[in-house]
Specification:
This protein is an alpha+beta fold. The chain has a 5-stranded antiparallel sheet. Helix content is 26%, strand content 28%. It has 3 domains: 2-71, 2-Layer Sandwich (Uridine Diphospho-n-acetylenolpyruvylglucosamine Reductase, domain 2); 76-229, Uridine Diphospho-n-acetylenolpyruvylglucosamine Reductase, domain 3 (2-Layer Sandwich); 239-342, Uridine Diphospho-n-acetylenolpyruvylglucosamine Reductase, domain 1. Helix 4 (198-206) packs across helix 5 (216-230). It starts with a strand and ends with a strand. The protein contains 8 helices and 20 strands.
Length: 344
């Protein structure tokens, strides 16, 4: 366990925001997490408490006046392997893409479409991350955590996690109450590729790979190529990936939108709802590639807001508000931020 008073948060947020925490504690085990919680109740009593992973989905607006807990719990443990199913328990502090690479190399399938998504395993279970037609909930068996208030352990089945589009019970009723320590996955020995998105098929085709012959490793590399072609590297230009969630609208609202924009992209959710790409809405509202001071909308993927250099959290938030206002004014649709905005 490492304790840092008045700690810079620059290494702990991919937006590259200059901010400080009153104290930051990095822990490597459940035991150390409980020790950190004891420290919060004694030496740092009364200070607010925030748990983070890699900081790839955070926007700090100011210095944080309390204790930040940072998970470094590692480990990948094969629990069971019967028939086609493989159960694997992974530490919440493991880098998510490192875990995906390990699974693909081991012949454990189901995670390929989630390649190159930034962040840690614990955060992926909280966010229910998703990409190219696959969500984390489709492979999560259970989630282990510790109460930030009492230090008591708890386990949730996938069904108990309340998963929805970019949501879970950890972002709702239990928000801020638990630290995720481990995630257990149910993967498969049989590889069944998910190729519903045209960009994947065209990338594979350009590489001379047919849908019927693609391997898990080839699909992973294709997804990495697609993501790298559209999304900025946070090591080069600060960002938190997709800043907004794709809005889900009623079928009636979609019919009105389609009447005005016949070529508008969409994805059917069910008989009554349609998901509209937020990036398309932002582009149509005229914000793709535009800047507002030191913050900007990325020129290749309008879902991504970037730090042009020296931006503050307030700069990013001002851009977020301007984009939301423009989309709301033009389409009557409210974009919801996917990024966790920390107001101190």
């Amino acid at each position: 366990m490492e304790i840092h008073d008045h700690c810079s948060l620059l290494p702990y947020n991919t937006f590259g925001i200059q901010a400080k925490a009153r104290v930051l504690v990095s822990y490597d085990s459940v035991r150390e997490l409980c020790q950190a919680l004891d420290l919060h109740r004694t030496a740092y009593a009364g200070l607010p408490l925030l748990h983070i992973g890699a900081g790839s989905n955070l926007l700090f607006l100011t210095d944080y006046p309390g204790m930040i807990l940072h998970s470094r719990i590692g480990g990948v443990t094969l629990l069971d392997c019967q028939g086609d199913d493989v159960l694997v328990r992974v530490g919440a502090g493991v880098v998510h893409d490192t875990w995906v690479a390990r699974a693909v190399a081991s012949g454990w399938h189901g995670l390929e479409n989630l390649s190159l998504i930034p962040g840690q395993v614990g955060a992926s279970a909280v966010q229910n991350i998703g990409a190219y037609g696959v969500e984390a909930q489709s492979v999560i068996e259970r989630v282990d955590g510790v109460s930030l208030g009492t230090g008591e352990p708890r386990t949730w089945t996938c069904a108990q996690c309340g998963y929805g589009y970019r949501s879970s019970v950890f972002k709702g009723a239990l928000r801020g109450q638990y630290a995720i320590t481990h995630v257990t996955y149910r993967l498969h020995r049989t590889f069944v590729p998910h190729l519903d998105y045209g960009a994947l098929r065209s990338t594979l085709q350009a590489r001379g790979i047919s849908a019927g012959q693609v391997t898990a490793a080839q699909l992973r590399q294709a997804i990495i190529a697609v993501r790298q072609s559209k999304l900025p590297d946070p090591c080069v230009q600060g960002n938190a990936g997709s800043f907004f969630m794709n809005p889900v609208v009623s079928r009636a609202q979609w019919d009105r939108l389609r009447a005005e924009y016949p070529g508008a992209p969409h994805y059917d959710v069910d008989d009554s709802h349609v998901k509209v790409p937020a990036g398309w809405l932002i582009e149509q509202a005229g914000w793709k590639g535009r800047a507002l001071g030191r913050a900007a909308v990325h020129d290749r993927q309008a879902l991504v807001l970037v730090n042009r250099g020296g931006a503050t959290g307030a700069d990013i938030l001002a851009l977020c508000d301007a984009v939301r206002d423009a989309v709301r004014s033009r389409f009557g649709i409210d974009l919801r931020p996917e990024v966790n905005i920390i107001r101190g």
